[in-house]
Amino acid sequence: MITCYSHNDDGHAAIRVFNEMREQSFIPDNYTYTSVLAALALVADREEHCQQLHCAVVKSGTGLFTSVVNALIAAYVKCASSPMTSSTKIFDAMDEKLVVAWNAMISGYVEKGLVFQVFEMFRKMQSLGINFDDFTYTNVLSACADTGLFLHGKQVHAYILRRETKSPGHFWASVSNALITLYWKWQIVEAASIFNQMREKNLLSWTVMISGLAQNGSSEEALKLFNQMKSRGLEPCDYAFSGAVISCAVLAALEQGRQLHGQLARLGFESSLSAGNALITMYSRCGDLDAAHKFFLTMPFLDSVSWNAMIAALGQHGHGVQALELFNKMLEENILPDRITFLTVLTSCSHAGLVEEGQHYFDIMQNVYALTPGEDHYARLIDLLCRAGKLSKAKDVIQSMPFEPAAPVWEALLSGSRLHGDIELGVLAAEQLFEKIPQHDGTYILLANMFATAGRWAEVAKVRKFMRDRGVKKEPGCSWLEVENKVHVFLVDDTVHPEVQVVYSYLKELVVKLRKVGYTPDTKFVLHDMESEQKEDALSTHSEKLAVVFGILKLPHGAAVRVFKNLRICGDCHNAFKFMSKVEARKIIVRDRKRFHHFEDGDCSCGDYW
């Protein structure tokens, strides 16, 4: 019974039966201790319980059995409060170390994040001529994937190819799955190649590949693979659903995400942390903050990822104060914040203009929680200061950074300089970006925008020529929305969408109505030197305007219009949508590259601070 419960991953039941066995004066043998120690490892209980069983093993004399010693090592790995101390003592005292014992130690080092010791054990096994098995390879590859040691992982992969007689397609499934995990973080094409070569794919193989595609932004491919998996009769687990749900978040496919939520609920996966966290992100990124918040409140279990996802959601939708309140609630629940938590908090402060609060959280990250800010944290702090017009302070922070500022830091400074008209500082930031990311179109566009706003058209022409000479092409504006389960895409100056002429016609009528209630086209957002009337016409071709008007025409009266854009929303469009929301009595939600804007009754949730 103990062995049966242990093999079925029910550690608590196995331990309960073991205690009943001892109460009834039955004497455990080596098989019993092996099984109950395996059960203890499953539940990761307190170290004292492991020590009690260890004493019982010594008294019974079963400690001479290799299987019992291996089980003891595995149990101490899971239960010990100090990293690997007890398990190392037992391992070092073993006369005969089989591959199982080595694997248990390597697994422990992987779990504790001690990657140096993982490779040390791997090399010792090599030098002693111990044959590796699938568990050895899987653990070492997992260590490489978890710690970002991609080149080390590639070397291990090359070693496997040289040493093993099996062809890649016939590798152990666990090794192939570990290789997919390694490669999807760095080379998604190689990961797909390994997946496609596998002769026998298990549930984990499909799940890892779906997650990899989703994490790398190949969302459509992830959803296709998810559906292919189901068509082959495999029932997706909660992690596979998580990958599919995250793909819906990236694609802003709200209806498909809702359908996946329904399937999750029917299969009993709604209480899964991974699926639940994905659903929070999906609803938030699809513009339904209320659904994200409601689901967060109903989750039976929350981890730091859950809190981070909800804080990020509130911040992205412009509710900075509520995001900070939730962060404080997280601390009250004794959940320790991590690097991602502070990233979401700083972003929330930036979107809401909470400068003092943002500086405070940046400071306590280091001084209270001993977390060293990375490039991404500094970039958020610079963005916060620049949005608020504190450009001199932002420059001081950049000069005091403990490492060379990366591109996102200079991008934040350039954006702030454009926003507040500091051309000298903007040019300085742009020069840095031309060196670091010379093919990134955003630098040229922001710099040209800054010169255009100042009416310096000669400099605008120079920037455009510089851009052409370097072969850099501007990413075209693109907006999309979902109507009746179909995604409709609009480009800037669109002539492709089958109903675009109807949209242009209604937009022309709508602009007349908007003018009557105070709207005036803001032609400073047209970055070409042309006549005023031509500039107004150019504003009417922006992709987000076309998508919003299409939504107004096609969606039921009273339904919110949810539009998603690949670039930052245009200032004139932002102003027009405030008037449209009032004239059309519609809630209009726009997600651009940076954040969400909720337009309702003439106002925007960002408070015009964006």
TrEMBL record:
Keywords: Repeat. The keyword Repeat applies. GO terms for molecular function: RNA binding; zinc ion binding. GO terms for biological process: RNA modification. PPR repeats lie at residues 98-132, 202-236, 303-337. Residues 518-610 form the DYW domain. The keyword Repeat applies. It comes from the Eukaryota. Pfam families: DYW_deaminase, E_motif, PPR, PPR_2. Coiled coil: none annotated. InterPro entries: DYW_dom, E_motif, PPR_At4g14850-like_plant, PPR_rpt, TPR-like_helical_dom_sf. Belongs to the PPR family. PCMP-H subfamily. PANTHER family: DYW DOMAIN-CONTAINING PROTEIN (PTHR47926:SF541), PENTATRICOPEPTIDE REPEAT-CONTAINING PROTEIN (PTHR47926). This is Pentatricopeptide repeat-containing protein. It comes from Dorcoceras hygrometricum.
